[in-house]
Design a protein that fits this description.
The protein is mainly β. The protein has no helices and 13 strands.
Length: about 130
């Protein structure tokens, strides 16, 4: 099930500690054929993530993280963050090209055609997220 979804997600002490996918997926994650179907995290992390065939449909985070993210079939359409979130976002037609964040949040996010390639976060956020193709 990991071929279309996440391969490895390693979080710092403020978020998830370790998530490693096996054949069935994560412990509390339900997958569909194309990607993730539902992800429910504790109050320190994600609140709700619902995926469709093309990628993310809706992501709702708690007050410490993202506020609202709405995706279209090409990638991100609109992202609205709270004051603790993103500072700058630059998108191309395939999805995100470059995202520049403030020092309280993400450091670098680089996307490829298939989705996320690498996400490198600073010490306040995620440490590593690596997606397969």
């Amino acid at each position: 099930m990991t071929r279309k979804g996440l391969n490895n997600m390693v979080y710092d002490e403020k978020g998830l500690n370790n998530m490693v996918l096996d054949e069935k997926g994560l412990n509390n994650m339900v997958y569909d054929e194309k990607d993730l179907n539902n992800m429910v995290y504790d109050e320190k992390g994600l609140n709700n993530m619902v995926f469709d065939e093309k990628g993310l449909n809706n992501m709702v985070y708690d007050e410490k993280g993202l506020n609202n993210m709405v995706y279209d079939e090409k990638g991100l359409n609109n992202m609205v963050y709270d004051e603790k979130g993103l500072n700058n976002m630059v998108c191309n037609e395939k999805g995100l090209n470059n995202m520049v964040y403030d020092e309280k949040d993400l450091d670098n996010m680089v996307y490829d055609e298939k989705g996320l390639n690498n996400m490198v976060y600073n010490e306040k956020g995620l440490n590593n997220m690596v997606y397969d193709v």
